[in-house]
Amino acid sequence: MFSENYSRQTALASVQQALDPNLSDHELATLARSEEAKIRAAVAERPAMPLTTLLKLAQDPSPAVRAGVARNPRVDIPLELHRQLAGDKTPEVVFALIENPQVPDSIIAKLARQLHKEYAGEARARLASKGGASKVLGRFGIATSH
């Protein structure tokens, strides 16, 4: 008979496996289909994740998985995928996108103009952190107040 901790231990072992830097594309794709959202989220953040799998994970019902995709530092993620994630209704996903330095400033600037004050404030802060805040923000039509 299994112990009460069996499921938890198995999930933790799977998350550890998902963090292994030597996984093949096939192994990553298998983990991306896991029943555990934490495992899917962990592999969604990996730069080596095949793009087709990332596109599928961006549609995942779990916000944690979509946030993992939003955090993914790949430089070749399609602009349309970043736009899709920027429109997500879950704050965790949008904040993960804002924190990702690979997301283009044009997407962040659009978030900076949103009515959602927390998104807008975080997006403006990211743009301002690039130096020359007035110049960067002005380029995207965002006025700064001093």
Verbal overview:
It holds the Pfam family LRV. InterPro entries: ARM-like, ARM-type_fold, LRR_variant. By secondary structure, the chain is mostly helical. The protein has a domain at 6-103. The chain contains ten helices and no strands. α3 runs parallel beside α5 and α7 runs parallel beside α9. Mean pLDDT is 83; it is low at 1-6 and 132-137.
Question: What is this entry, summarized?
Answer:
By secondary structure, this protein is mainly alpha-helical. The protein has helices spanning 6-18, 25-32, 37-44, 51-57, 63-71, 79-86, 91-99, 105-112, 117-128, 133-139. It has a domain at 6-103.
SSE blueprint:
Elements: H1 6-18, H2 25-32, H3 37-44, H4 51-57, H5 63-71, H6 79-86, H7 91-99, H8 105-112, H9 117-128, H10 133-139
Helix pairs in contact: 1-3, 3-5, 5-7, 7-9, 8-9
Keywords:
146 residues; mainly alpha; elongated; Leucine rich repeat variant; ARM-like; LRR_variant; ARM-type_fold
Hey, roughly how much beta strand do the residues contain? under 5%
Number of strands: 0
Radius of gyration: 18 Å
Low-confidence stretches: 1-6, 132-137
Helicity, as a percent range = 55-70%
DSSP helical segment count: 10
Major sheet characteristics? none
Protein name: Leucine rich repeat variant
Organism: Demequina activiva
InterPro entries: ARM-like, ARM-type_fold, LRR_variant
